[in-house]
Specification:
Layout (H helix, E strand, L loop, with lengths): L7 H23 L14 H6 L22 H8 L34 H5 L13 E6 L7 E6 L2 E5 L4 E2 L3 E6 L3 E6 L4 E6 L4
Antiparallel strand pairs: 1-2, 2-3, 4-5, 5-6, 6-7
């Protein structure tokens, strides 16, 4: 490979930068910053702790090798001994707790105005009426009759068995009325075929 005069400056600059990067890497790996070693019990303190206590004195506390001197092992062992006692309800299930209802000792009169009559749940409300109105019909020989129904400003065209407004099914078409089923409430209603 031959270096020309035009690449000579670039080659020298790349070589100088390479040498500097190599020196930085060597310095980072060879000379690490000196840190003091972690504090450990000295050799003089260890025999004193391990020495047997005399008969009249209290035993010396045993030194433990701990990474964190603030760590209180006595509190940790005390917390491990605690047992959780709950009410027996599983907190991971979405069920309501059973409610205990005290039954009266004497049978209550279940007439109008008694507490038992007031406590019974109200009956479910009746389903809403179907708002479709007859608008007209069209029939051709050999085809099923098409019914035109309106709801406000909307006009729907359907045959027997089709669903209108994603909710109402045309069950049956007779010469006098149309039987419509509300799919949400399972409610059937007849719409009379009257001009008006």
């Amino acid at each position: 490979m031959k270096l020309g005069a035009e690449n000579r400056k670039e080659t020298i600059a790349a070589a100088v930068l390479g040498v500097i990067a190599l020196l930085m890497l060597v310095r980072a790996f060879v000379s690490s910053p000196t840190t003091p070693p972690p504090s450990t019990p000295t050799a003089a303190a260890a025999p004193a702790a391990a020495a047997p206590a005399s008969k009249g004195s209290k035993p010396a506390p045993v030194l433990t090798n701990s990474l964190d001197p603030r760590l209180r092992l006595d509190l940790l062992t005390a917390s491990e001994q605690v047992k959780y006692v709950g009410k027996g309800r599983n907190i991971f299930r979405a069920e309501a707790e059973p409610v205990k209802i005290d039954q009266p000792k004497f049978p209550a009169y279940k007439g109008k105005g008694s507490k038992a009559a007031e406590m019974s749940p109200p009956p479910p409300p009746p389903p809403p009426p179907i708002p479709l109105k007859y608008f007209g019909l069209a029939s051709r020989p050999g085809e099923a009759t098409r019914i035109f129904l309106s709801e406000g400003d909307n006009i729907f065209v359907a045959r027997e068995g089709e669903i209108v407004d994603r909710r109402y099914k045309i069950v049956r078409v007779t010469p006098n009325q149309i039987e419509v089923e509300d799919m949400l409430y399972n409610n059937r209603q007849s719409i009379p075929l009257s001009q008006g």
